[in-house]
Automatic annotation (TrEMBL):
Keywords assigned by UniProt, alphabetized: Activator, DNA-binding, Transcription, Transcription regulation
Membership in a protein family: Belongs to the LysR transcriptional regulatory family.
Gene Ontology MF, one: DNA-binding transcription factor activity
PANTHER family referenced in this protein's UniProt entry, alphabetically: TRANSCRIPTIONAL ACTIVATOR PROTEIN NHAR, TRANSCRIPTIONAL REGULATORY PROTEIN NAC-RELATED
Protein known as: Transcriptional regulator, LysR family
InterPro entries xrefs: LysR_HTH_N, LysR_subst-bd, WH-like_DNA-bd_sf, WH_DNA-bd_sf
Source taxon at top rank: Bacteria
Amino acid sequence: MINYKQLYYFWAVAKHGGITRASEQLHLTPQTISGQLSELEKGFEATLFDRVGRRLELTALGKLAYSYADEIFQVGKELENAITKKNNIRERVFRVGISSSVPKSIAYKLLSPALEKDPGIHLVCKDNNLEHLFADLALHKTDLVIADKPLSSDVGIKGYNHLLGECPIAFYATPALAERYRPNFPHSLNNAPLLLPGEDSALRIMLQRWLSQQSINPIVKGEFDDTALMKAFAQEGVGIFPGPTVIDKESQKEHGVEMLGEITELKIRYYAISAERKLRHPSVVAISEAAQQNLFAPHQAARNIDMDGHQDI
């Protein structure tokens, strides 16, 4: 049975960078904290800190223990805030990881129904690559991951892919570039300046395969993990960029670009990835329902599937 007082002392030492600083914050003697750390390590039968000179550094097991302890005490703080909150609307924290390859406007459209459904929600968004986001999901540091590719069973993380919807891909550019390359589209993309999403994007792999099949060889002017940065370059006339048609109006209005043409056979999919097979979290349910009934409805009714590809109903 874990001694949570000892775990709290360990967490404080790791958080504040040493026993002395932790003792100052906790108003305890260094000897008291040191003794409690020793007892915790005995209970775990593991070394949590290595002494490097005058510093303490977390071991691999110590880092794992800290990640869990941090989650435990964050939840404890949320519980304290919820109980002591004076108004009737209890703040609820909803943590979402968003793949860098998902356009910001799509992320907003997907998440806004959760805010509308629950006025007391406290949304925490983290933008990162999928490797980090899936790790947070495995450690229960994230409630949901929104991505343009499913969680693969090869990753070794337990999770379920809930397909939110799909839409075709189109190419966009400034009016001058659009006028030049729109005739004879898509073959006009041959030798055209092209901006590509980063390697972590599902769209990147899809496009490269399609371009090769069509014997189209554009001149790649840049690669971008952040879709907003890619559009900023496109807005300045650097090149043509691909994007989902579900945000066609926003792309044209916000970035002053025009559509060259649509590739209907290319479909980009978006997933809500959770640790639960059946969606139960009210915010996640709101996101899924709104995506299927509103955002992606004109293109295709979405299906929920688990990470093995089976229908989840």
